[in-house]
Design brief:
single chain; 6-stranded antiparallel sheet; 5-stranded antiparallel sheet; Jelly Rolls; 2 helices; 11 strands
Length: 169
Amino acid sequence: MQTTQWYRILGIAVVATGLLGATVLYAEEAAKAPAVHVMVTSADLKWLDGPPSLPPGAKVAGIEGNPKDPGLFTMRLKFPANYKVAPHWHPADEHLTVISGTFYMGMGEKLDEAAAKELPAGSFVVMPAKQPHFAITKGETIVQLHGMGPWAITYLNPTDDPRSKAAAK
């Protein structure tokens, strides 16, 4: 056999071994995480006070996963009328659906109500990771947020962070 043929055979063997290894690893990971159905109605939701990373008044209901852990999560947030979330960003893409009410969202480093886009119920937003943005409500509004954890919120101006205000008390 010629040297070129040996290199071809060796190359095919390396690729086949890699594909087999990847398939085995995928199968092992799939076996670790058993599939479960998640079926939730609005009546099933348990609303709790929002996290300390949001200004007081928000409510949160977990639906799937834990935003503190790696992996997918889904939650709903209920905001009262005249609620504001100062400019901030997240470490991963934010996927947001307006369930009820009207949500106002804008991009940038300053909270500018005139620049906020009106998002009525049924609207959908994908905010890229680390994109500075802000949010406002005029009436009670419920949004559904899903993304990849671990989830966090970083305020552009540290004095806007409700956690720093709580620590100062």
